[in-house]
């Protein structure tokens, strides 16, 4: 057997991931080894170390109770975390162990932040809407005021004309 083909190699394309709350995150890895390895993912944070999942590709994954319904495993060793929260920020350590005992581990650091910009976006859109409605109402009031002013001028003008005619008629009768 070729000695260079023994052992485990592990590749992590994205060792640091930034995400926002409620996103689905793929912790992507790829490995190569002889035979079918055992893959284990652990989560470490300031709270301590917690096992997430352990499985052999092609078999049922043993997912910890804390991550039930939140993790999906892939045969290449990757896992997907559904609807992450700030509490999911930390280091995710994968260990790939082949049948003969050699292993390789790697780390992915996940940082999850709150979605503040969406709240600000909503407020900005709402304020723009209110400004637009206010401008429309002010314009409408201005147009109504102009129309009322013109109507009053025409009415005064007609009143002056009718008063002048009456005066002229009265002058003629005398």
UniProtKB/TrEMBL annotation:
The chain crosses the membrane at residues 120-144. It is found in: Membrane. This is V-set and transmembrane domain-containing protein 5 isoform X3. PANTHER family: SIGNALING LYMPHOCYTIC ACTIVATION MOLECULE, V-SET AND TRANSMEMBRANE DOMAIN-CONTAINING PROTEIN 5. The keyword Membrane applies. The keyword Transmembrane helix applies. Keywords: Glycoprotein, Membrane, Signal, Transmembrane, Transmembrane helix. The lineage of its organism: Eukaryota, Metazoa, Chordata, Craniata, Vertebrata. Its main location: membrane. It comes from Odocoileus virginianus. InterPro entries: CD2/SLAM_rcpt (IPR015631), Ig-like_dom_sf (IPR036179), Ig-like_fold (IPR013783), Ig_sub (IPR003599), NK_rcpt_2B4_Ig_dom (IPR024303). Residues 14-113 form the Immunoglobulin domain. It holds the Pfam family Receptor_2B4.
């Amino acid at each position: 057997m070729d000695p260079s083909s023994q052992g485990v190699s592990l590749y992590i394309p994205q060792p640091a991931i930034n995400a926002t709350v409620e996103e689905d995150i793929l912790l992507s890895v790829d490995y190569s080894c002889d035979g079918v390895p055992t893959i284990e993912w652990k989560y470490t944070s300031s709270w301590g170390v917690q096992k997430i999942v352990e499985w052999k590709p092609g078999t049922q994954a043993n997912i910890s109770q804390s991550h039930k319904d939140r993790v999906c495993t892939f045969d290449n060793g990757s896992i997907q975390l559904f609807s992450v929260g700030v509490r999911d920020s930390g280091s995710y350590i994968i260990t790939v162990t082949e049948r003969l005992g050699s292993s390789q581990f790697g780390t992915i650091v996940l940082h999850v932040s709150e979605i503040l910009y969406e709240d600000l976006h909503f407020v900005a859109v709402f304020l723009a809407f209110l400004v637009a409605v206010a401008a429309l109402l002010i314009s409408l009031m201005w147009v109504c005021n102009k129309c009322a002013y013109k109507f009053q001028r025409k009415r005064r003008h007609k009143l002056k004309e009718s008063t002048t005619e009456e005066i002229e008629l009265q002058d003629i009768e005398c």
